[in-house]
Amino acid sequence: MEIKGTGAVVTGAGSGIGRGIALALAEAGAAGIVVADVQQDPIDAVAEEIRSKGIKAAAFRCDVSKAESVEALADFAWRTLDHVEILCNNAGVVTTGPGFATTEDDLRWQFEVNVFGVFFGCKSFGRRFLKSEARAWICNTGSHHSVGTPSVGLPTYVASKHAVLGFTDAFRLEYGNRIGFSILCPGIVNTNAWDAGRNRPNELGGPTKGSQQNQAALQNYGLSPEFVGQLVAKGIRSEEFFIWTHPFTIELIEKRYHECRDSIQRQWPDGPLPEHKRTPSRV
So what's the pLDDT on residue 215? Predict the structure, then answer.
């Protein structure tokens, strides 16, 4: 997928991976970029960064958990850029803590942003992409937990990122002949995700203060968001479905694979059923 000359939209672009993706697309030659986030000031700053590179850019305040807000983002993007070929559904949030201590508000907040936000983006932009003759691409931000094994203290986040992979793969099956799809599966990245609760809406528990321990972990061990943005641009250009940031993720994938394979071999030691027994007979 050629990035040069395209119009692009990136959600969650006020900081972190979203900002990194937007800057990387600008460096790759995108003709114009709309950066979206739930906070206005950060995306104004990112849009100015992009304009300083000689690329057309605009900021749009968007709450991806609301279908009407995402639809308004799409309208704004086409009105501002005239054409859009790339969408990066990157906005995401996380809460941490023991699984059984998770509240209904914790669950709803993460799923509304991480899952509903991806669905609304794919739907609003995807329908428009199907009407265009131009090649289009959607990249959704998942996690290495989308495909690997979960971590303690992240039950709802992990579940939401599994759902992102499910949507992305299903949409690829349905629309892959017209629209390209990628899923970014990052490991630890130096972002302000540790403090995502600052934007938590009142109806879902209100703002919360992030953990300084989590902040230190991200800062000390996380990759640069700008580097991750470059990986995304490279992945879109080479039309990769999975975009990885950490090679060690293969260990998580192999762990899941071996557990699945070994359990099947235990439960079906004689191998697959004969063909005539695989499908229930119809009366």
Answer: 73
Angle in degrees, 0-180, between the axes of helices 104-111 and 155-175, rounded to the nearest 10: 30
Catalytic entry in 66, 157, 221, 257: 157
State residue 282's pLDDT score: 53
* 4 classed as catalytic: no
Quote the CA–CA distance of 283 and 281 in Å, as a whole number: 7
- Choosing from 56, 161, 257, 277, the catalytic residue is 161
Cα distances (angstroms) measured from residue 269 to each of 168, 232, 264, 280: 34, 42, 8, 21
Show Cβ contacts of residue 128 under 8 Å, excluding neighbours closer than 6 positions: 74, 78, 84
Active site residue 161: yes
145-197 confidence digits (pLDDT tens): 999 878 888 999 999 999 999 999 999 999 999 999 999 999 989 987 776 77
pLDDT (tens digit per residue) in 57-86: 999 999 999 999 999 999 999 999 999 999
Residue 222 to residues 201, 216, 218, Cα–Cα distance (Å): 27, 10, 5
Spatial CB neighbours of 46, under 8 Å, sequence gap ≥ 6: 13, 14, 15, 19, 22, 23, 35, 57, 59
